[in-house]
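Here we describe the complex-level prediction in full. Unlike the single-chain runs in Section 2.1, the two entities below were treated as one system.
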Amino acid sequence: MSKIVFKHPQSLKENIYHYCPGCGHSIVHRLVAEVIDEMGIRGITIGVPPAGCAVLAYNYFDVDMIEAPHGRGPAMASAIKRSLPDRVVFSYQGDGDLAAIGIAESFHAANRGENITVIFINNAVYGMTGGQMAPTTMLNQKTTTSPGGRKQELDGYPVKVSEIFSQLRGSTYVERCSVSSPAGVNKTKKAIKKAFQCQIDGLGFSLVEILSLCPTNWKMSAVDSCKWIDEVMSKEFPPGVFKDNIAARKTAEAES
Amino acid sequence: MSGNNIIGEAAIRAGCRFYAGYPITPQNELTEYMAEHIRNEEGGVFIQSESEIAAINMIAGASAAGLRVMTSSSSPGISLKQEGISSMAACELPGIIVNIMRGGPGLGNIRPSQGDYFQATRGGGHGDYRTIVLAPASGQELADLTMTAFDLADKYRTPAMILADGMMGQMMEPVIFKKPKPRQYSEKFMLRGAGTGKSKFIRGLLLDPIDSEAHNWKLARKYEVITKNETRFEEHRIDDADMVIVAYGTAARIAKGAIKRLRDQGMKVGLFRPITLWPFPELKLRALSAKVKNFLVFEMSTGQMLEDVRLALQGYADIEFHGRPGGAVPTPAELANVIAKIYDKKD
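The structure predicted for the assembly as a whole is:
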């Protein structure tokens, strides 16, 4: 008997990605689609893609989607979820979208404990606009708007989203992963699944931060990009579970 | 009831089930009314948003999910909402935006004003789009036009604005709520999960200029239909008038008071009151110029609707202007004096 171990996810359209070679978005799109398939939630899932490289995510995900203006995804997702509480709602955001222009919308969606899932791609750079400095750009990292490298006295520090959002009482589950290695990819998929399950169980706000590669704007090969995530980025943004109140919330729910 | 509360009650009766807003004077009573009452309705959602930007995007999301939605603010907050209004127009999402105008520009003050006419009627945000703009001038009209706004927004799948001012929002008047029409809005425009069918997406981004141009023309054709079918106005003591005041909202009420005084003194003055500011009742006003040659535009601004009146009259009649910007509100007596001076001069 043969067994299918790898196939095209049903929740992913058969369009060819417009992403650059080596881009992490393609990996994460696939992981999200696999999780949606495995959980059997394609028909009840609504996604909110960001402004940024993933703005065309609706060309790839075969689930209902609505575009949000830059940074406003979590506000829109909050409203969709409150309007349709039995649907699964996720926003897909980049670092500029979440940690700069949409920090207020993201922060307050988390603080209200909105029962949504945020997939957060941290690649330390503005990809779509051509490689400008992001809120998560590393100190000394060269970008087109930090040509001499990011300087803390001029540009401030990389924003640590998982650390900050885990401090909010409204958030339930916050994990940082990386797609720089097969092990990291597997871990990321588990985290995405856990986050969706958290939402389906009605346990509140979940966020998965994913360290993702941008070889084009980092001006590195894909292999070097993976190395850079592991050796440099991961020092500033250590992967791990920053908050997991799932069990505690379940107990609290059962008791009430 | 206060004007702000009337809008809230009318909205809920019209089936509004999602409201998001951020506090700003002089419209807070409306936000508070929605907080108190909308959750009593089945499926009713109230969110006090972190900003006006979040509020407009929340109603966009809830609108896509298929609910009747509303947000409200006052002038500076409406500036913040423009990104979302443009986006809703692009994505063809219905929704109601209430602007209880205050003095501007900048933070201005919290007194009644009409300085947001340009912003409201020219789209306000970026890109080629229009917003339906309704300008109530009484408590009863606040109720009626709020219900109308929901119907128009659904019918044309576009955002609609109630443009009133601090005076309208704060004043108390008796009101009879009419029975709202049943909602007509197809499920095919709603985003509620694909089920076992094909997935949908709602977007305003069209990278191909050919697609984008076609979308712009599609919107433009829709705006033509709205202009043809939905223009509303009131004429008051026009029949024998040899001078017509053009004013909307609170300014029109003041003008009516002034006209009563002037009529008592034998001056034949009437009022033309646009109820839809966009679409502007241009053809009707132009037709009026066949029999009346003297017009006075009165606004609580330095002269914004004045431009639409000029475009409508196209030089066929004389146009004078009187304005009180920045939150100043004249009395009917003051306006009557201004009108009388011009009237005598024309005589």
